Amino acid sequence: MTKQSSKEYMKEPFDLLQTITPAIIDAKVYDTIVEKIAITKPIISTQWLHRAAAIFICLIGIEGYAIFSETSGVTNDFSDLITQTNNTLYYE
Amino acid sequence: MDFEAFYIKNKNFVYNLALQYVQNIEEAQEITQDVFLKAHQKIHTFKGGATLETWLYRITINTSLDAIKAKKRKKRFAIFSRNQDELNKYTNFNHPGVTLENKEALQRLFGLINKLPQTQKTALILIKIEGKSIKEVAHILEKTPKAIESLLQRAKTQLKKHRNQTEGL
Q1: Which CATH class is domain B99-169?
Q2: CA–CA separation, B122 vs B61, rounded Å?
Q3: Residue B106 buriedness (CB in 10 A; 0-12 / 13-18 / 19+)
Q4: Does B107 touch chain A (CB under 8 A)?
Q5: Is the pTM of this model over 0.95?
Q6: How far apart are CA B93 and CA A35, in angstroms?
Q7: Which residues of B touch A13 (CB under 8 A)?
Q8: Which residues from chain A sit within 8 angstroms of residue B4, using beta carbons?
Q9: Which range is least confidently modeled, A73-77, B30-34, B99-103, B119-123?
Q10: Which residue among A26, A41, A90, B49 sits deepest, i.e. has the most Cβ atoms within 10 Å of its Cβ?
Q11: With an 8 Å Cβ cutoff, are A25 and B156 in contact?
């Protein structure tokens, strides 16, 4: 008996694989996909969410800058409330 | 192109490719749904470098491989919990493209193909079942044609080894 070559040995399974015919998908699959898309679709688009977040961050930044620039010129607001003394005793 | 036209154009190749990976109608349908859902959500990330079909091939391959991983986890859990119904669901060979006379032989053959590493299995499916050329597969998998030839050769060697082992039993 002659020994089968490697190519011949694997020919049969590969020929078998080529007998597989293309299958047709069930029509209901499309409806399910459309349903899933409708469920996963966000009510507010992410683009608008990004825009709102960017505006919000800008406003916070402006607010922070305004507060910082107002206070940076003044050394201490409480200094006016403290009475100034010249450290001299009365009746001296 | 609207989504329905896009689906009609590509549905069969996505479904058939998924079938070659999982060999089960329900699972292939679920993969097809996931593929089109992902394509719908990520169409804006599609770069014109590859064709839309190549891009869809990549999504299908990745989704199928992920589904197989998830199936293995569920199957392990079903064995552990001794849930026979659940176990049958994950071991069921139900390929509509296979004729009745070849069913048993192909079921055995797919059993061996499923043991191959993911990349070898992908190369084998695309070339031997889907009829793609080495060049086309190289483009889909973003590898060189030499690398694909090597993958296919290794897949054949592994398959032969597994076949010898099962015949020796």
Answers
A1: mainly alpha
A2: 8
A3: buried
A4: no
A5: no
A6: 28
A7: 109, 159, 163
A8: 30
A9: A73-77
A10: A26
A11: no
